[in-house]
Amino acid sequence: MRSSKRKKKSHKILQVETSPLPSTLSRMTSIWELANSQLRDITVYEAGKPIEETARELGVDPGAIIKLASNENPLGPSPKAVQAMRAALDNAHLYPDGTGFYLCKAIAARLGLAPENIILGNGSNEVLEFLGHAFLDAERQDEVIASEYAFVVYKLIATSFGARMIEVPSPGYQQDLEAMLETITPRTRLIFIPNPNNPTGTLISQREIDRFILRVPEQVIVVFDEAYFEFLDVPPDTLRFVREGRNVIVLRTFSKIHGLAGLRIGYTLARPDVIDVLHKTRQPFNVNSIAQAGALAALEDEAHLRETKRVIDEGRAYLQEQFAEMKLPFVPGVANFVMVNVGDGCAVFEKLLRRKIIVRPLKGYGLPEWLRISVGSMEGNTRCVAALREILGCAN
After folding, report:
1. DSSP-derived pairing of the beta strands 164-168 and 221-225
2. What local confidence, expressed as pLDDT, does residue 322 receive?
3. What is the Cα–Cα distance from 103 to 115, expressed in whole angstroms?
4. How far apart are CA 200 and CA 220, in angstroms?
């Protein structure tokens, strides 16, 4: 017979002995001990202050903010591009064309090249990363050359790939190609030449470029960053070096004159074998289908390009005339912005911000006295000038 008394179950409590963390982890005080060492020296890129953030801080409607900080197209995108992007949304569930076949074909036809000369990027910045992956080697102690006051992302790319960045002085805020030539060593891999340059707005002539290219050693790749190319009346021809098979790479973008900065789409032009190397570094589907559709339509909208250039030419002339009248030093520019000396760039930036106007202080470029002011609509330009006159005490 079974006993009527149930046996009590005994519960054993497991004792888990804790041991101290390994000595290497116990000493760890920062994630930087795991991160790549070269990242410590990188200053994070600061973009122009967004409209939405400024509106929140000031407690105003975003429509009241004038943004003249990021060299954006004041007319916005081409209406044809907007229409094409809306149509492309119907197929947003499909992966994009990984190679951008139709857009590359259209760009090639326009420039007299072959599609094999072109690679698309998620903005020109991604193509800069392609170049770092493809050509920079920290163990080899590679070097990169760019001008003082050139686009800060060149330095970010060089540093992130463990290369040494050499910045050549810019007398009069002009890029000095002769000094760049003298700086080349056997370790030099890339030379970045933004033309026109951001943020100074200055341009290097065809004659200077021709003389420079003839003297660059074969192991050095010259990268012409031509984000503002379409704003030029008589642009230098750097594509002829690509056609000649030289180690020249040309970067262009749909962010500026085409007004598609929010889509992040740029492209690179180079010899087919160079493009093959860059494709090895590209992530699949790096440029989305909406961006490709918008860029293809924008490329074909000549009327929008002409009107944008007209507005920029008129606005830039107005700003420079006003700065001269106010006796403010400025660098005569050829793109869609002007660099102007206001005495204390950060202080004036903050005062303009309180007046609902966003510009770009240049302290991060080593230019604390300067602002970069993008050319906007004429209403935006005149409001900015009026605010500057008030802040700086300049009489009308």
Report:
1. unpaired
2. 98
3. 9
4. 25
Residue 260 predicted with pLDDT over 80: yes
**pLDDT mean across residues, the chain:** 92
For residue 282, is pLDDT > 60?
yes
- Give the 3-state secondary structure of residue 340: strand
For the segment 296-303, the average pLDDT, to the nearest whole number, is: 97
Q: Burial letters for 50-72: b for 16+ Cβ neighbours within 10 Å, e otherwise?
A: ebeebbeeeeeeeeebbbbbbbb
pLDDT digits (tens, 9 = 90+) for 331-362: 999 999 999 999 999 999 999 999 999 999 99
Separation CA 128–CA 221 (nearest Å): 13
- The answer to whether 228 and 250 have CB atoms below 8 angstroms apart is no
More confident residue, 123 or 50: 123
Instruction: Tell me the whole-structure pTM to 2 decimals.
Output: 0.89
The contacts of residue 363 (CB under 8 Å, 6+ apart) are 345, 346
pLDDT at 384: 98
State pLDDT tens for residues 163-215: 999 999 999 999 999 999 999 999 999 999 999 999 999 999 999 999 999 99
Q: How many helices (H) and strands (E) does the chain have?
A: 14, 13
310 closest CA partner among 290, 336, 271: 336
Say if residues 385 and 329 touch (Cβ distance below 8 Å): no
Q: Tell me phi and psi for residue 332, to 5 degrees.
A: -55, 125
CB 229, CB 193: distance < 8 Å? no
* Residues 315, 378 contacting (CB under 8 angstroms): yes
In what side-by-side order are the strands of the sheet with 337-341? Answer: 330-331, 337-341, 370-374, 360-361
- What pairs with residue 358 in β-bridges? 67
What strand order describes the sheet that includes 221-225? 118-121, 266-269, 248-253, 221-225, 188-194, 143-147, 164-168
Nearest Cα neighbor of 352 from 366, 333, 373 is 373
CB 289 within 8 A of CB 303: no
Cis before residue 196, ω within 30 degrees of 0? yes
Please give the biggest Cα pair distance in the chain.
114
Rounded CA gap, 203 and 334, in Å?
7
pLDDT band at 21 (very low <50, low <70, confident <90, very high): low
95 with 288: CB under 8 angstroms?
no
H-run or E-run covering 102: helix 101-111
